[in-house]
Amino acid sequence: MENVIEVNGLTKRFEKTTAVGGISFQVGKGEVFGFLGPNGAGKTTTIRMLTGLSKPSDGKASILNYDIQSEITQIKKCIGVVPEASNLYDELSGLDNLVFTAQLFGVAWDERVKRAEELLKTFGLFDRKNDLFRKYSRGMKRALTIAAALVHKPSVLFLDEPTVGLDVVAARSLRNLIKNLHSQGTTIFLTTHYLEEADLLCNRVAIIVKGKIVKIDTPKALKEFSGEGNLEDAFIKITGLSPNVMVMEKGGGYNVAR
Amino acid sequence: MWRDNLRAIYYIALKDMKTYYLKPPGVSWGIVFPITWILAFYLRAPGDFRELVPGLIAMTILFSTTAAEAVVINFEMRLGSLERLLLAPVTVSAVLLGKILGGAVFGLMMTGIVTVGSIIVLGVHPHILHLSIIILISCFTFATLGALLCVFVKEVFEAQTLLNLPRFIMVFLCGVIYPVSKMPVWLQYISSVMPLTYTVEGLKDSFGFSSSHIIFKDALILSAFLSLFVFMAINRLKKKFE
């Protein structure tokens, strides 16, 4: 399989800490690649480096054979990014937000409104296209943020915690959309805390802990390797992390025990 | 690449104008505040109001161009919307120049209203070419100064506080109300390193209230301030995304 994303020894150091410590992996064309890890493991920092929002301290990476440091503009034309926060413009309508994104990405002027309206229909927001973004529900905001990432028809899509804060129905719609994009050949790089979601969607997953990748394999192989029946238990076993137990102390307050 | 950046500069400015500038707070800071201030000073020491017109225009330029920079930069930075712009195939410089262009165009609009109003109501007769040159360069210079100060801090309130410091110092020391030539020498030295001094000088020349300066000298000095502010602001913003 042709590799779309290649990462070799990618490192990000901040003043005293190493957020990402020399990670290496490849993502094949048309693959849904899950990037899993606890909070602060380095998932978002990795996405930020791959999408040009942060400079790596060391190591190399390429997307579609373009180097992330010297050819980031070419990369940005081919990728869509859905950040963890729905950060479109509150004072613009749904339609205007998508048209503005299309303008920034250089979508032909006679295609912009057409493309934006197509996406609004796909995401079930067409009837609310003239409403301001700030009037949308959380699920609608998330859906529009994802639509904005697709406005220039990217071949690689980065999704950072896409279903966080969504209700069951909205989350399921979104998972169906990811499956659809996958079936159309889009390569998807997905970070999520919901391991069931990763199990359902991903061809392969990488598990990152404290900036280091500890395991990369298919969800099925990870479950077999750990001897667990579901990916959540497999994840806990592989990472060596145990859930905290909140113990009520005498006289009120809580203590964290392992 | 340069076409991508030019397109981004244009659309970012347009979006900022639509989203932030053409709203009541922008208009009140840009027009109502300078007029109220100048009127207050006029009422305290009545004289020929026409002589206060350059100061009024200078204040309008200063406040209208810097009014929304804290919102377009710090507020968007906090929400992550500024980062969203950087996910597009454009450079950090293009994003910042888009922000500056939005502020400068809004400043030009507000200053245009005040200037035309002054010409009609007070019957002043400026040298149109000279006036246009000074207003144009000043609007870009002060929009860039606003952007520069905003990229140094995180929060909107910090940016507003930081912006008020040079704004009010310049209003008092740069000849907006009180002529620089009548100030103590040491204050004249301070005013000589402030860009608003050259805006006021250029405007006074344009209106024929002063003939001691060469207009192109003022334009040249303002251009030097503009280049310095652009360079510093872009470098600072780039560092934020390293």
SSE diagram, text form:
The complex is a heterodimer of chains A (258) and B (242).
Chain A: E1 3-13, E2 18-28, E3 32-36, H1 43-50, E4 58-63, E5 66-67, H2 72-78, E6 79-82, H3 94-104, H4 109-122, H5 138-150, E7 156-160, H6 168-183, E8 187-191, H7 195-201, E9 204-209, E10 212-217, H8 219-226, H9 231-239, E11 245-248, E12 254-257
Parallel strand pairs in A: 3-8, 3-9, 6-7, 7-8
Antiparallel strand pairs in A: 1-2, 1-4, 4-5, 9-10, 11-12
Chain B: H1 2-21, H2 24-44, H3 53-66, H4 69-79, H5 81-86, H6 92-122, H7 128-151, H8 156-173, H9 185-192, H10 195-206, H11 215-240
Could you describe the 3D structure shown?
The complex is a heterodimer of chains A (258) and B (242). With 258 residues, chain A is α/β, with parallel strands linked by helices. Chain A has nine helices and twelve strands. Chain A has helices spanning 43-50, 72-78, 94-104, 109-122, 138-150, 168-183, 195-201, 219-226, 231-239, and strands at residues 3-13, 18-28, 32-36, 58-63, 66-67, 79-82, 156-160, 187-191, 204-209, 212-217, 245-248, 254-257. In chain A, strands 6-7-8-3-9-10 form a six-stranded mixed β-sheet, sandwiched between helices. The longest helix of chain A has 16 residues, at 168-183. Chain B starts with a helix and ends with a helix. Chain B is globular, with a radius of gyration of 18 Å. In chain B, 49% of the residues are buried. The longest helix of chain B is centred in the middle third of the chain and has 31 residues, at 92-122. The model of chain B has no long low-confidence stretch (mean pLDDT 88). By secondary structure, chain B is an all-alpha fold. In chain B, α7 (128-151) runs antiparallel to α10. Chain B contains eleven helices and no strands. The interface between A and B is medium-sized, with 23 and 24 residues.
**Radius of gyration of chain A from CA coordinates:** 19 Å
Strand order of the largest sheet of chain A: 6-7-8-3-9-10
Q: Please, what is the oligomeric state? A: heterodimer
Q: Provide the residue-averaged pLDDT of chain A.
A: 87
CATH class of chain A: Alpha Beta
SSE topology string of chain A: EEEHEEHEHHHEHEHEEHHEE
Show unreliable segments of chain A.
none
For the record, give the distance between the C-alpha atoms at the N and C termini of chain B, rounded to a whole number.
Answer: 21 Å
Largest beta-sheet characterization of chain B = none
Count of alpha and pi helical runs of chain B: 11
Greatest chain-chain contact: A-B, 23 and 24 residues
Hey, roughly how much beta strand do the residues of chain B contain?
under 5%
Radius of gyration based on Cα positions of chain B: 18 Å
CATH-derived topology of chain A: Rossmann fold
DSSP summary, beta strand count of chain B: 0
